[in-house]
Structures are given as C-alpha cells and as structure tokens.
Automatic annotation (TrEMBL):
Name used for this protein in its record: UPF0231 protein
Family membership: Belongs to the UPF0231 family.
A Pfam family this chain is assigned to: UPF0231
InterPro entries named among the record's database cross-references: UPF0231
Lineage: Bacteria, Pseudomonadati, Pseudomonadota, Gammaproteobacteria, Vibrionales
Length: 122
C-alpha cells in the first residue's frame, strides 16, 4: 500500500493508493490529528500483533476497521448492514471505494508514520 501525506495551509491529510482509498478516508475523517485516537489505534494494533487468532474492531462514525488474522479491513458502516436487495454487478466498482484491506504490518507503518508526520511535519 502506497500513501502520501500532505499539509496544505495547516490542514493535514493522507491519500492512499488505488484500492486503499477508504483507508485514507478513514484516517482523515475518523482519526485526523487526534493523538488520543491515534494511541487507541496503536494499542489495538499491538493487541492484534500479539493475538493473531482474535478479532479486533474499532467502530467509527462513518467508517470502521476490523483486524483479524493479520489483515485489516476498513469499510463504510453502511456496508456492515444486511441488505435484502441485490445490487447490480456494476455496483462492485463503488464498493471498491467503500471497503479495502491491507496487511497489519502495512497498516501499522501507516499509523506510525502518520503520527510522526503530525508531530514533526515530515
């Protein structure tokens, strides 16, 4: 997973590579510059690294994460709801922007670098 941090006119943001856009959105919208939330995510990562057999969840207002067996799933909460209606196959394209996965190691690197970027500006 590739990502780029930006600071424009005092506003911090991250943009993630194609297929991982939702991870960038989650970090921008749910975590942002809140160091307490960043610490909470880092604690969750540490727990997951030590207990690969368990499932760890961090619900967000619009986007939530789940860590299971060394994989991180980030998805919009609306996708967590069961729908009786089947969507057209063309809707799969939009789902790509609403959910994404990455390895726990990549996710950990992203969060640690985000924390460093916010505190040092690099």
């Amino acid at each position: 997973m590739e990502f780029e941090f930006r600071r424009v006119f005092g506003k911090y943001s991250v943009q993630c590579s194609m297929g991982h856009e939702i991870i960038g959105r989650w970090l921008n919208e749910e975590i942002g510059r809140d160091m307490e939330k960043i610490s909470q995510v880092l604690s969750l990562i540490a727990q997951a690294e030590n207990n690969l057999a368990d499932v760890f969840n961090l619900p967000g207002t619009e986007i939530s994460i789940s860590i299971e067996a060394g994989e991180v799933t980030v998805q919009e909460n609306v996708l967590l709801q069961q729908y009786e209606q089947d969507f057209e196959p063309d809707m799969d394209f939009y789902d790509c922007e609403s959910s994404g996965m990455c390895g726990l190691e990549d996710f950990s690197t992203l969060i640690h670098q985000w924390q460093r970027f916010l505190t040092t500006g690099r």
